[in-house]
Amino acid sequence: MDIYDMLFWILSAIAVSCALGVILSRNPVTSVMFLILTFFAISGHYILMNAQFLAIVNIIVYAGAIMVLFLFVIMLMNLNADVEPQKGQLVQLAGVISGGVLFLVVLAAIKTAAPQPIEKTSTDIGLITNLGKVLFTKYVLPFEISSVLFLSAMIGAVVIGKKEEIPNIQRGE
User: Fold this and answer.
1) Contact 41/22 with Cβ under 8 angstroms?
2) Which residues, 6+ apart, have CB-to-CB distance to 39 below 8 Å?
3) Which tens digits make up the pLDDT trace of 12-38?
């Protein structure tokens, strides 16, 4: 067993255990922290597959921006046991049944999957240089159109979010 196999199994154990922590944690903030650790473990898998760009995008977008958004929403909602609605027995039974069916589907997929040999040679498939060459030659027009679309969406969000100033009117008595 070489170092790549060992890293794969360590990252897999971290990803699976943190994913279980997301599901089993009763505290929503702790659950989000476990999800961030899961994203970092998945980024480690991307690095092992020589897809550095996907690893960095996964860390920046998911572990960074989206998880901060989740934390803000959770903290703004201020969830606790008094406010949170209680789940009925029927909802819990439906959750157990759907989880069991999903588990059976995963087991069937694992049973029928044939192991594929892994190439240990270095390739340039996941590198950013190839993506940049294709993006700025073959797909330059859609790239520029999407950048204008994102710019207009940002301007629209600023315009919608801007509050109008209400003049301070003094009441006469």
Assistant:
1) no
2) 58, 59, 62, 63, 67
3) 999 999 999 999 988 888 888 899 999
pTM of the predicted model as reported, rounded to 2 decimal places: 0.57
Residue 131 has pLDDT above 80, yes or no: no
Check if the beta carbon of residue 14 is closer than 8 Å to that of residue 89: no
Reduced DSSP (H G I as helix, E B as strand, rest coil) percent helix, strand, coil of the chain, to 5: 70, 0, 30
* CA-to-CA separations, 54 to 15, 45, 85, in angstroms, rounded: 17, 10, 39
Q: Which whole-number Å values give the CA distances from 149 to 60, 109, 136, 139, 145, in the listed order?
A: 21, 40, 17, 16, 6
Domain map (residue ranges) of the chain: 1-79, 127-161
- Write the class of the CATH domain 1-79: mainly alpha
pLDDT tens digits for 135-156? Answer: 888 888 888 888 888 888 888 7
